[in-house]
Write a structure and sequence with these properties.
By secondary structure, the chain is of the alpha/beta class.
Amino acid sequence: MVLVSQAAIDDYIGQGWWSQTTLGELFIQTAQQQPEVWAVLDPPNLRSITGDEPVRWRWQDLLAQVGRYTALLHARGLRKDDIIVVQLPNCVEMHAIYLACALSGIVVSPVPVQYRLHELIHVFDTTHAKLSITTARVGHYACAQAWQDNQHRFSGLEQIWSLGSDGPDGVMALSAALASTPPWDGERLLAHMRTSGVTAHDVVTICWTSGTEARAKGVPRNHNEWLIAGQSVNDAGQLQPGAQLLIPFPFVNMAGVSVSLASWLILGGTLHHHHPFDLDVFVTQLREHPIDYSVAAPAVLNLLLKQPEKMQGVDFSRLKSIGSGGGPLSEWLVEEMKRQFDIEVINYFGSNEGAALSSSPQDMPVRSQRALYFPRMGVPGFDWKMKVSRKIQTRLVDINDGQDIVASGQIGELRFKGPTIFSGYYKAPELSARAFDEQGFYRTGDLFEIAGDRQQFYRYAGRHKDIVIRGGMNISSEEIEGLIMSHHQVRDAAVIGAPDPTMGERVCAVVVTQPGQSLSLEELVDHFKQVKQVAAFKWPELLMLVDELPRNPVGKVLKRELRERFFPAPKLPSHQGLENARAAA
Protein backbone atom coordinates (compact mmCIF):
# COMPACT_ATOMS: atom_id res chain seq x y z
CA MET A 1 0.00 0.00 0.00
CA VAL A 2 1.99 2.95 -1.31
CA LEU A 3 0.21 6.29 -0.82
CA VAL A 4 3.08 8.71 -1.50
CA SER A 5 3.47 9.93 -5.09
CA GLN A 6 6.38 8.59 -7.11
CA ALA A 7 7.60 12.15 -7.66
CA ALA A 8 7.85 12.71 -3.90
CA ILE A 9 9.59 9.35 -3.41
CA ASP A 10 12.17 10.16 -6.10
CA ASP A 11 12.74 13.63 -4.59
CA TYR A 12 13.20 12.38 -1.01
CA ILE A 13 15.50 9.54 -2.05
CA GLY A 14 17.48 11.89 -4.29
CA GLN A 15 17.96 14.27 -1.35
CA GLY A 16 19.18 11.38 0.82
CA TRP A 17 16.27 11.77 3.24
CA TRP A 18 14.62 8.43 2.47
CA SER A 19 16.13 5.09 1.52
CA GLN A 20 15.09 1.67 0.23
CA THR A 21 15.71 -0.02 3.63
CA THR A 22 12.62 -1.35 5.40
CA LEU A 23 11.99 -1.67 9.12
CA GLY A 24 12.05 -5.45 8.71
CA GLU A 25 15.46 -5.49 7.03
CA LEU A 26 16.90 -3.23 9.71
CA PHE A 27 15.48 -5.47 12.44
CA ILE A 28 16.83 -8.74 11.02
CA GLN A 29 20.27 -7.22 10.47
CA THR A 30 20.40 -6.02 14.09
CA ALA A 31 19.06 -9.28 15.54
CA GLN A 32 21.69 -11.27 13.69
CA GLN A 33 24.48 -8.94 14.77
CA GLN A 34 23.65 -8.90 18.50
CA PRO A 35 21.51 -11.96 19.31
CA GLU A 36 22.34 -12.02 23.05
CA VAL A 37 21.57 -8.36 23.78
CA TRP A 38 18.30 -7.59 25.55
CA ALA A 39 15.82 -6.14 23.05
CA VAL A 40 12.48 -5.58 24.83
CA LEU A 41 11.16 -5.96 28.38
CA ASP A 42 7.56 -6.08 29.59
CA PRO A 43 6.32 -3.65 32.26
CA PRO A 44 7.25 -5.19 35.62
CA ASN A 45 3.62 -4.86 36.77
CA LEU A 46 2.15 -6.57 33.68
CA ARG A 47 0.46 -9.23 35.81
CA SER A 48 -1.69 -6.61 37.53
CA ILE A 49 -2.65 -5.21 34.12
CA THR A 50 -3.37 -8.30 31.99
CA GLY A 51 -2.88 -11.26 34.35
CA ASP A 52 0.22 -12.40 32.42
CA GLU A 53 3.72 -12.73 33.82
CA PRO A 54 6.16 -10.17 32.41
CA VAL A 55 8.84 -11.49 30.08
CA ARG A 56 11.99 -10.10 28.50
CA TRP A 57 13.36 -11.02 25.10
CA ARG A 58 16.86 -10.84 23.68
CA TRP A 59 17.16 -9.84 20.04
CA GLN A 60 17.36 -13.53 19.08
CA ASP A 61 14.19 -14.25 21.10
CA LEU A 62 12.37 -11.40 19.40
CA LEU A 63 13.54 -12.66 16.00
CA ALA A 64 12.07 -16.08 16.79
CA GLN A 65 8.77 -14.54 17.88
CA VAL A 66 8.62 -12.35 14.77
CA GLY A 67 9.25 -15.53 12.74
CA ARG A 68 6.33 -17.26 14.47
CA TYR A 69 3.95 -14.32 14.03
CA THR A 70 4.86 -13.98 10.36
CA ALA A 71 4.33 -17.68 9.70
CA LEU A 72 1.02 -17.67 11.62
CA LEU A 73 -0.32 -14.59 9.86
CA HIS A 74 0.53 -16.12 6.49
CA ALA A 75 -1.01 -19.48 7.41
CA ARG A 76 -4.24 -17.74 8.47
CA GLY A 77 -4.58 -16.03 5.09
CA LEU A 78 -3.31 -12.50 5.84
CA ARG A 79 -1.51 -10.91 2.89
CA LYS A 80 0.11 -7.63 1.86
CA ASP A 81 -2.15 -4.58 2.27
CA ASP A 82 -4.53 -6.40 4.59
CA ILE A 83 -5.22 -4.42 7.78
CA ILE A 84 -5.28 -5.66 11.36
CA VAL A 85 -6.47 -3.77 14.45
CA VAL A 86 -4.41 -4.18 17.62
CA GLN A 87 -5.67 -3.24 21.08
CA LEU A 88 -3.00 -4.06 23.64
CA PRO A 89 -1.24 -2.30 26.49
CA ASN A 90 2.48 -1.70 25.96
CA CYS A 91 4.15 -5.11 25.92
CA VAL A 92 6.85 -7.09 24.10
CA GLU A 93 4.22 -8.74 21.91
CA MET A 94 3.55 -5.43 20.21
CA HIS A 95 7.11 -5.38 18.89
CA ALA A 96 6.66 -8.84 17.42
CA ILE A 97 3.34 -7.87 15.81
CA TYR A 98 4.60 -4.60 14.32
CA LEU A 99 7.71 -6.22 12.86
CA ALA A 100 5.96 -9.34 11.53
CA CYS A 101 3.45 -7.11 9.76
CA ALA A 102 6.19 -4.80 8.45
CA LEU A 103 7.90 -7.83 6.89
CA SER A 104 4.62 -9.05 5.38
CA GLY A 105 3.25 -5.74 4.12
CA ILE A 106 0.29 -6.08 6.50
CA VAL A 107 -0.87 -2.73 7.92
CA VAL A 108 -1.19 -2.41 11.70
CA SER A 109 -3.89 -0.09 13.03
CA PRO A 110 -3.20 0.24 16.76
CA VAL A 111 -5.94 1.66 18.97
CA PRO A 112 -5.73 2.88 22.58
CA VAL A 113 -6.83 0.39 25.22
CA GLN A 114 -9.44 2.95 26.27
CA TYR A 115 -11.32 2.63 22.96
CA ARG A 116 -14.75 1.06 23.28
CA LEU A 117 -17.58 0.20 20.89
CA HIS A 118 -18.23 3.82 19.87
CA GLU A 119 -14.66 4.31 18.58
CA LEU A 120 -14.07 0.77 17.32
CA ILE A 121 -17.09 0.74 15.01
CA HIS A 122 -15.68 3.80 13.25
CA VAL A 123 -12.22 2.20 12.94
CA PHE A 124 -13.69 -0.87 11.24
CA ASP A 125 -16.09 1.11 9.08
CA THR A 126 -13.02 2.92 7.76
CA THR A 127 -10.47 0.11 7.49
CA HIS A 128 -12.53 -3.11 7.08
CA ALA A 129 -9.72 -4.82 8.97
CA LYS A 130 -9.77 -8.63 8.73
CA LEU A 131 -8.13 -9.43 12.05
CA SER A 132 -8.02 -8.03 15.57
CA ILE A 133 -5.43 -8.86 18.21
CA THR A 134 -6.22 -8.08 21.84
CA THR A 135 -5.82 -9.66 25.26
CA ALA A 136 -8.09 -11.31 27.77
CA ARG A 137 -8.21 -8.27 30.00
CA VAL A 138 -6.73 -4.87 30.68
CA GLY A 139 -7.39 -4.09 34.33
CA HIS A 140 -11.05 -4.88 34.93
CA TYR A 141 -12.01 -4.60 31.27
CA ALA A 142 -12.53 -7.98 29.54
CA CYS A 143 -11.21 -6.99 26.12
CA ALA A 144 -11.44 -10.28 24.26
CA GLN A 145 -14.98 -10.93 25.49
CA ALA A 146 -16.09 -7.45 24.42
CA TRP A 147 -14.56 -7.98 20.97
CA GLN A 148 -16.33 -11.31 20.55
CA ASP A 149 -19.68 -9.93 21.75
CA ASN A 150 -19.53 -7.14 19.16
CA GLN A 151 -17.79 -8.86 16.25
CA HIS A 152 -20.98 -8.67 14.18
CA ARG A 153 -20.82 -4.88 14.41
CA PHE A 154 -17.26 -4.58 13.08
CA SER A 155 -17.21 -4.35 9.28
CA GLY A 156 -14.92 -6.92 7.69
CA LEU A 157 -13.65 -8.54 10.89
CA GLU A 158 -13.07 -12.27 10.29
CA GLN A 159 -10.77 -13.34 13.12
CA ILE A 160 -10.12 -12.35 16.74
CA TRP A 161 -6.88 -13.42 18.41
CA SER A 162 -6.22 -12.97 22.11
CA LEU A 163 -3.20 -13.08 24.36
CA GLY A 164 -3.70 -14.37 27.86
CA SER A 165 -4.73 -17.74 29.22
CA ASP A 166 -8.37 -17.06 30.05
CA GLY A 167 -9.85 -15.82 26.78
CA PRO A 168 -13.44 -16.66 25.81
CA ASP A 169 -14.48 -19.59 23.62
CA GLY A 170 -14.49 -18.74 19.93
CA VAL A 171 -11.49 -16.42 20.20
CA MET A 172 -8.19 -17.93 19.09
CA ALA A 173 -5.72 -18.34 21.96
CA LEU A 174 -2.69 -16.66 20.46
CA SER A 175 -0.08 -18.03 22.86
CA ALA A 176 -1.00 -21.63 22.08
CA ALA A 177 -1.15 -20.97 18.34
CA LEU A 178 2.29 -19.38 18.38
CA ALA A 179 3.78 -22.20 20.46
CA SER A 180 2.73 -24.72 17.81
CA THR A 181 4.01 -22.60 14.90
CA PRO A 182 7.64 -23.23 13.81
CA PRO A 183 9.36 -19.84 13.41
CA TRP A 184 10.69 -18.66 10.09
CA ASP A 185 14.36 -17.71 10.32
CA GLY A 186 15.85 -14.44 9.15
CA GLU A 187 16.58 -15.58 5.61
CA ARG A 188 13.08 -16.91 5.10
CA LEU A 189 11.61 -13.73 6.53
CA LEU A 190 13.60 -11.62 4.06
CA ALA A 191 12.57 -13.88 1.21
CA HIS A 192 8.94 -13.57 2.29
CA MET A 193 9.23 -9.78 2.36
CA ARG A 194 10.66 -9.65 -1.14
CA THR A 195 8.18 -12.16 -2.54
CA SER A 196 5.34 -10.13 -1.03
CA GLY A 197 6.66 -7.02 -2.79
CA VAL A 198 7.16 -4.98 0.38
CA THR A 199 9.09 -1.71 -0.08
CA ALA A 200 10.20 1.08 2.25
CA HIS A 201 7.41 3.22 0.77
CA ASP A 202 4.62 0.86 1.89
CA VAL A 203 2.32 1.88 4.73
CA VAL A 204 3.22 0.25 8.05
CA THR A 205 0.59 1.76 10.35
CA ILE A 206 -2.69 3.61 10.40
CA CYS A 207 -2.85 5.49 13.70
CA TRP A 208 -5.84 7.51 14.88
CA THR A 209 -5.96 11.19 15.70
CA SER A 210 -8.74 13.56 16.75
CA GLY A 211 -9.17 17.09 15.48
CA THR A 212 -12.15 19.34 14.94
CA GLU A 213 -14.08 16.59 13.16
CA ALA A 214 -16.57 14.45 15.05
CA ARG A 215 -14.71 11.23 14.28
CA ALA A 216 -11.07 10.23 14.59
CA LYS A 217 -9.01 10.26 11.39
CA GLY A 218 -6.70 7.48 10.22
CA VAL A 219 -3.11 8.63 9.65
CA PRO A 220 -1.08 6.24 7.47
CA ARG A 221 2.73 6.23 7.78
CA ASN A 222 5.24 4.20 5.80
CA HIS A 223 8.66 2.74 6.69
CA ASN A 224 10.58 5.86 5.65
CA GLU A 225 8.20 8.21 7.45
CA TRP A 226 8.70 6.29 10.69
CA LEU A 227 12.46 6.03 10.26
CA ILE A 228 12.89 9.76 9.72
CA ALA A 229 10.85 10.37 12.89
CA GLY A 230 13.09 7.97 14.82
CA GLN A 231 16.21 9.65 13.48
CA SER A 232 14.92 13.00 14.75
CA VAL A 233 14.34 11.58 18.24
CA ASN A 234 17.86 10.17 18.35
CA ASP A 235 19.30 13.44 17.08
CA ALA A 236 17.43 15.57 19.64
CA GLY A 237 18.41 13.28 22.52
CA GLN A 238 21.95 12.69 21.23
CA LEU A 239 21.26 8.98 21.73
CA GLN A 240 24.00 6.48 21.05
CA PRO A 241 23.80 2.93 19.61
CA GLY A 242 22.64 0.41 22.19
CA ALA A 243 20.82 3.01 24.31
CA GLN A 244 18.38 1.81 26.96
CA LEU A 245 14.98 3.49 26.59
CA LEU A 246 12.11 3.67 29.10
CA ILE A 247 8.97 4.77 27.23
CA PRO A 248 5.66 5.16 29.11
CA PHE A 249 3.73 6.65 26.17
CA PRO A 250 1.11 4.32 24.58
CA PHE A 251 2.58 2.35 21.67
CA VAL A 252 -0.25 3.51 19.38
CA ASN A 253 0.64 6.93 17.95
CA MET A 254 3.47 9.28 17.03
CA ALA A 255 4.67 9.85 20.59
CA GLY A 256 4.95 6.12 21.28
CA VAL A 257 5.82 4.50 17.95
CA SER A 258 8.47 7.04 16.95
CA VAL A 259 10.55 6.08 19.99
CA SER A 260 9.47 2.55 20.94
CA LEU A 261 9.80 1.21 17.39
CA ALA A 262 11.68 3.59 15.07
CA SER A 263 14.24 5.17 17.40
CA TRP A 264 14.84 1.86 19.22
CA LEU A 265 15.33 0.00 15.95
CA ILE A 266 17.83 2.50 14.56
CA LEU A 267 19.81 2.39 17.81
CA GLY A 268 19.67 -1.38 18.23
CA GLY A 269 18.82 -0.55 21.81
CA THR A 270 16.86 -2.02 24.71
CA LEU A 271 13.23 -0.91 25.15
CA HIS A 272 11.67 -1.00 28.62
CA HIS A 273 7.87 -0.91 28.37
CA HIS A 274 5.64 0.96 30.80
CA HIS A 275 1.86 1.41 30.65
CA PRO A 276 -0.51 2.62 32.02
CA PHE A 277 1.49 5.30 33.77
CA ASP A 278 2.36 4.63 37.41
CA LEU A 279 4.85 7.01 39.02
CA ASP A 280 6.24 4.50 41.53
CA VAL A 281 6.69 1.80 38.89
CA PHE A 282 8.28 4.34 36.54
CA VAL A 283 10.81 5.47 39.15
CA THR A 284 11.57 1.85 40.10
CA GLN A 285 12.38 1.11 36.47
CA LEU A 286 14.66 4.16 36.35
CA ARG A 287 16.39 2.92 39.48
CA GLU A 288 16.75 -0.76 38.54
CA HIS A 289 17.98 -0.33 34.96
CA PRO A 290 20.73 1.81 33.39
CA ILE A 291 18.28 4.00 31.46
CA ASP A 292 19.77 6.45 28.95
CA TYR A 293 16.60 8.21 27.80
CA SER A 294 12.97 8.50 28.75
CA VAL A 295 9.93 10.67 28.10
CA ALA A 296 7.40 12.10 30.52
CA ALA A 297 4.61 14.65 30.58
CA PRO A 298 5.33 18.01 32.25
CA ALA A 299 3.09 17.08 35.18
CA VAL A 300 5.22 13.99 35.90
CA LEU A 301 8.44 16.00 35.88
CA ASN A 302 6.84 18.52 38.25
CA LEU A 303 5.95 15.71 40.65
CA LEU A 304 9.52 14.38 40.61
CA LEU A 305 10.92 17.83 41.30
CA LYS A 306 8.54 18.25 44.24
CA GLN A 307 9.51 14.79 45.59
CA PRO A 308 13.22 14.47 44.72
CA GLU A 309 13.69 11.65 47.20
CA LYS A 310 11.89 9.37 44.74
CA MET A 311 14.85 9.68 42.37
CA GLN A 312 17.42 8.40 44.86
CA GLY A 313 19.37 5.51 43.37
CA VAL A 314 18.86 6.53 39.73
CA ASP A 315 22.04 6.34 37.65
CA PHE A 316 22.35 9.96 36.55
CA SER A 317 25.64 9.19 34.83
CA ARG A 318 23.45 7.45 32.19
CA LEU A 319 20.16 9.34 32.29
CA LYS A 320 21.15 12.65 30.74
CA SER A 321 18.01 13.69 28.85
CA ILE A 322 14.24 13.34 29.05
CA GLY A 323 11.76 14.35 26.37
CA SER A 324 8.58 16.18 27.32
CA GLY A 325 5.69 17.87 25.60
CA GLY A 326 1.94 17.72 25.13
CA GLY A 327 1.65 20.78 27.33
CA PRO A 328 3.55 23.94 28.22
CA LEU A 329 6.88 23.64 30.04
CA SER A 330 7.88 26.16 32.67
CA GLU A 331 11.32 27.74 32.83
CA TRP A 332 11.51 26.57 36.44
CA LEU A 333 10.94 22.94 35.41
CA VAL A 334 13.69 22.90 32.79
CA GLU A 335 16.17 24.69 35.07
CA GLU A 336 15.41 22.53 38.11
CA MET A 337 15.65 19.21 36.24
CA LYS A 338 19.21 20.17 35.37
CA ARG A 339 20.06 21.57 38.81
CA GLN A 340 18.59 18.74 40.89
CA PHE A 341 19.19 15.73 38.64
CA ASP A 342 21.66 16.91 35.96
CA ILE A 343 19.03 16.02 33.32
CA GLU A 344 18.40 18.12 30.23
CA VAL A 345 14.74 18.39 29.19
CA ILE A 346 13.96 18.34 25.46
CA ASN A 347 10.82 20.30 24.59
CA TYR A 348 8.75 18.61 21.86
CA PHE A 349 5.86 19.79 19.72
CA GLY A 350 4.38 17.28 17.31
CA SER A 351 1.41 15.59 15.69
CA ASN A 352 0.52 12.18 14.27
CA GLU A 353 0.61 13.76 10.83
CA GLY A 354 4.37 14.29 11.16
CA ALA A 355 4.59 17.99 11.97
CA ALA A 356 7.25 18.27 14.66
CA LEU A 357 9.63 20.70 16.33
CA SER A 358 12.14 19.90 19.05
CA SER A 359 13.90 22.35 21.32
CA SER A 360 17.07 20.45 22.24
CA PRO A 361 20.21 21.45 24.21
CA GLN A 362 22.42 21.52 21.11
CA ASP A 363 20.20 24.12 19.41
CA MET A 364 18.78 25.80 22.53
CA PRO A 365 21.47 25.71 25.26
CA VAL A 366 19.74 28.46 27.27
CA ARG A 367 17.20 26.48 29.29
CA SER A 368 14.82 29.38 29.90
CA GLN A 369 14.56 29.79 26.12
CA ARG A 370 14.16 26.04 25.60
CA ALA A 371 11.08 26.00 27.82
CA LEU A 372 9.38 28.85 25.93
CA TYR A 373 10.54 28.56 22.33
CA PHE A 374 11.28 26.21 19.48
CA PRO A 375 13.93 26.73 16.79
CA ARG A 376 12.40 28.34 13.72
CA MET A 377 13.22 25.33 11.57
CA GLY A 378 12.51 25.07 7.87
CA VAL A 379 13.03 28.77 7.21
CA PRO A 380 15.94 30.09 5.10
CA GLY A 381 18.56 32.08 6.96
CA PHE A 382 18.81 29.98 10.12
CA ASP A 383 21.34 27.19 10.69
CA TRP A 384 20.30 24.62 13.30
CA LYS A 385 22.18 21.51 14.40
CA MET A 386 19.12 19.24 14.21
CA LYS A 387 19.41 17.49 10.83
CA VAL A 388 15.65 17.51 10.26
CA SER A 389 15.74 21.31 10.10
CA ARG A 390 17.31 21.01 6.65
CA LYS A 391 14.65 18.56 5.43
CA ILE A 392 11.42 20.37 6.27
CA GLN A 393 9.84 23.69 5.33
CA THR A 394 7.62 25.72 7.65
CA ARG A 395 5.55 28.82 7.19
CA LEU A 396 3.48 30.92 9.60
CA VAL A 397 0.19 32.03 8.06
CA ASP A 398 -2.37 34.65 9.07
CA ILE A 399 -5.59 32.66 9.61
CA ASN A 400 -7.72 35.58 8.40
CA ASP A 401 -6.13 36.44 5.04
CA GLY A 402 -3.76 33.50 4.35
CA GLN A 403 -0.71 35.76 4.07
CA ASP A 404 2.71 34.71 5.36
CA ILE A 405 3.75 36.23 8.68
CA VAL A 406 7.39 37.29 8.80
CA ALA A 407 7.38 39.76 11.71
CA SER A 408 7.47 39.10 15.44
CA GLY A 409 4.45 39.29 17.69
CA GLN A 410 1.73 38.32 15.19
CA ILE A 411 -0.02 35.02 15.86
CA GLY A 412 -0.72 32.64 12.97
CA GLU A 413 -1.08 28.99 12.05
CA LEU A 414 2.14 26.98 11.68
CA ARG A 415 2.30 24.82 8.54
CA PHE A 416 4.75 22.10 7.48
CA LYS A 417 5.99 20.52 4.28
CA GLY A 418 8.57 17.78 3.66
CA PRO A 419 9.47 14.10 4.08
CA THR A 420 8.20 13.86 7.67
CA ILE A 421 4.63 14.79 6.73
CA PHE A 422 1.97 12.18 5.99
CA SER A 423 0.37 11.90 2.55
CA GLY A 424 -3.28 12.27 3.60
CA TYR A 425 -5.94 10.71 5.85
CA TYR A 426 -6.93 7.13 5.09
CA LYS A 427 -10.01 6.90 2.87
CA ALA A 428 -10.91 10.53 3.61
CA PRO A 429 -10.17 12.57 0.47
CA GLU A 430 -12.20 15.59 1.54
CA LEU A 431 -10.47 15.78 4.92
CA SER A 432 -7.11 15.28 3.22
CA ALA A 433 -7.79 18.12 0.77
CA ARG A 434 -8.61 20.47 3.65
CA ALA A 435 -5.50 19.39 5.56
CA PHE A 436 -3.12 20.96 3.01
CA ASP A 437 -2.95 24.51 1.70
CA GLU A 438 -2.50 25.67 -1.89
CA GLN A 439 1.29 25.39 -1.57
CA GLY A 440 1.15 21.80 -0.29
CA PHE A 441 1.84 22.69 3.36
CA TYR A 442 0.08 20.70 6.09
CA ARG A 443 -2.20 22.90 8.20
CA THR A 444 -1.43 21.99 11.82
CA GLY A 445 -4.24 24.02 13.38
CA ASP A 446 -1.70 25.15 16.00
CA LEU A 447 -0.97 28.80 16.59
CA PHE A 448 2.55 30.21 16.96
CA GLU A 449 4.30 33.54 16.76
CA ILE A 450 7.82 34.52 15.72
CA ALA A 451 10.06 35.52 18.63
CA GLY A 452 13.69 36.14 19.54
CA ASP A 453 16.10 39.01 18.98
CA ARG A 454 16.83 37.71 15.46
CA GLN A 455 13.34 36.29 14.84
CA GLN A 456 14.97 32.87 15.21
CA PHE A 457 12.31 31.24 17.38
CA TYR A 458 8.72 30.03 17.23
CA ARG A 459 6.61 30.43 20.36
CA TYR A 460 3.54 28.25 20.86
CA ALA A 461 0.44 30.42 21.31
CA GLY A 462 -2.46 27.97 21.48
CA ARG A 463 -4.74 26.06 19.13
CA HIS A 464 -6.90 27.10 16.26
CA LYS A 465 -8.52 23.66 16.18
CA ASP A 466 -11.31 22.97 18.65
CA ILE A 467 -9.85 20.13 20.68
CA VAL A 468 -9.16 19.26 24.30
CA ILE A 469 -5.74 17.74 25.03
CA ARG A 470 -6.04 15.51 28.09
CA GLY A 471 -2.86 13.75 29.15
CA GLY A 472 -1.48 14.06 25.63
CA MET A 473 -4.62 12.59 24.01
CA ASN A 474 -6.48 14.80 21.52
CA ILE A 475 -10.25 14.85 22.07
CA SER A 476 -12.59 16.36 19.49
CA SER A 477 -14.97 18.82 21.11
CA GLU A 478 -17.43 18.27 18.26
CA GLU A 479 -17.51 14.52 18.91
CA ILE A 480 -18.17 14.98 22.63
CA GLU A 481 -20.81 17.64 21.97
CA GLY A 482 -22.65 15.25 19.67
CA LEU A 483 -22.65 12.57 22.36
CA ILE A 484 -23.89 15.00 24.99
CA MET A 485 -26.68 16.20 22.68
CA SER A 486 -27.92 12.61 22.37
CA HIS A 487 -28.91 12.70 26.06
CA HIS A 488 -32.65 13.29 26.32
CA GLN A 489 -32.28 15.91 29.07
CA VAL A 490 -29.95 18.15 27.04
CA ARG A 491 -31.11 21.01 24.80
CA ASP A 492 -27.74 22.58 23.91
CA ALA A 493 -24.10 21.85 24.73
CA ALA A 494 -20.53 22.99 24.23
CA VAL A 495 -17.26 21.41 25.30
CA ILE A 496 -14.16 23.28 26.41
CA GLY A 497 -10.89 22.30 28.03
CA ALA A 498 -10.57 23.00 31.74
CA PRO A 499 -6.96 23.75 32.73
CA ASP A 500 -5.52 21.01 34.95
CA PRO A 501 -2.03 20.87 36.51
CA THR A 502 -1.76 17.09 36.12
CA MET A 503 -3.50 16.23 32.83
CA GLY A 504 -3.01 19.54 31.05
CA GLU A 505 -6.74 19.80 30.39
CA ARG A 506 -9.91 18.00 31.40
CA VAL A 507 -13.17 17.75 29.47
CA CYS A 508 -15.66 20.34 30.65
CA ALA A 509 -19.27 20.11 29.42
CA VAL A 510 -21.26 23.36 29.35
CA VAL A 511 -24.90 22.32 29.07
CA VAL A 512 -28.32 23.88 28.62
CA THR A 513 -30.94 21.39 29.82
CA GLN A 514 -34.39 20.85 28.41
CA PRO A 515 -37.07 23.03 30.05
CA GLY A 516 -37.93 21.70 33.46
CA GLN A 517 -35.11 19.14 33.39
CA SER A 518 -31.99 18.82 35.51
CA LEU A 519 -28.74 16.94 34.86
CA SER A 520 -25.90 15.76 37.07
CA LEU A 521 -22.35 14.89 36.06
CA GLU A 522 -22.97 11.32 37.23
CA GLU A 523 -25.96 10.98 34.90
CA LEU A 524 -24.00 12.39 31.97
CA VAL A 525 -21.02 10.09 32.55
CA ASP A 526 -23.35 7.10 32.86
CA HIS A 527 -24.75 8.00 29.42
CA PHE A 528 -21.23 7.96 27.95
CA LYS A 529 -20.29 4.73 29.73
CA GLN A 530 -23.39 2.57 29.52
CA VAL A 531 -25.42 3.89 26.58
CA LYS A 532 -22.79 5.11 24.10
CA GLN A 533 -19.87 2.95 25.29
CA VAL A 534 -17.27 5.69 24.82
CA ALA A 535 -13.59 5.56 25.80
CA ALA A 536 -13.18 6.69 29.41
CA PHE A 537 -10.67 9.45 28.65
CA LYS A 538 -13.43 11.25 26.72
CA TRP A 539 -15.96 11.28 29.56
CA PRO A 540 -16.83 14.78 30.86
CA GLU A 541 -15.11 15.50 34.17
CA LEU A 542 -16.77 18.84 34.87
CA LEU A 543 -20.34 19.96 34.18
CA MET A 544 -21.41 23.59 34.01
CA LEU A 545 -25.16 24.26 33.67
CA VAL A 546 -26.11 27.53 31.96
CA ASP A 547 -29.35 29.09 30.76
CA GLU A 548 -27.97 29.84 27.29
CA LEU A 549 -24.75 29.44 25.30
CA PRO A 550 -23.17 32.65 23.99
CA ARG A 551 -23.22 32.74 20.18
CA ASN A 552 -22.12 35.14 17.46
CA PRO A 553 -24.55 36.52 14.83
CA VAL A 554 -24.19 33.42 12.63
CA GLY A 555 -24.82 31.02 15.51
CA LYS A 556 -21.27 29.91 16.37
CA VAL A 557 -20.71 29.23 20.08
CA LEU A 558 -18.25 31.74 21.55
CA LYS A 559 -16.09 29.31 23.49
CA ARG A 560 -13.59 32.01 24.35
CA GLU A 561 -16.31 33.66 26.45
CA LEU A 562 -17.05 30.34 28.17
CA ARG A 563 -13.36 29.84 29.00
CA GLU A 564 -13.07 33.38 30.33
CA ARG A 565 -16.23 32.92 32.40
CA PHE A 566 -15.38 29.57 34.01
CA PHE A 567 -11.57 29.48 33.88
CA PRO A 568 -10.27 33.05 33.75
CA ALA A 569 -6.56 33.31 33.06
CA PRO A 570 -4.41 34.96 35.74
CA LYS A 571 -3.34 38.50 35.00
CA LEU A 572 0.23 38.35 33.73
CA PRO A 573 2.62 40.91 32.26
CA SER A 574 2.66 40.98 28.49
CA HIS A 575 5.01 38.62 26.64
CA GLN A 576 7.06 41.61 25.43
CA GLY A 577 7.13 42.94 28.96
CA LEU A 578 8.61 39.67 30.24
CA GLU A 579 11.29 39.77 27.56
CA ASN A 580 12.15 43.37 28.45
CA ALA A 581 12.31 42.49 32.15
CA ARG A 582 14.68 39.61 31.47
CA ALA A 583 16.85 41.83 29.29
CA ALA A 584 17.00 44.47 32.00
CA ALA A 585 17.93 41.82 34.61
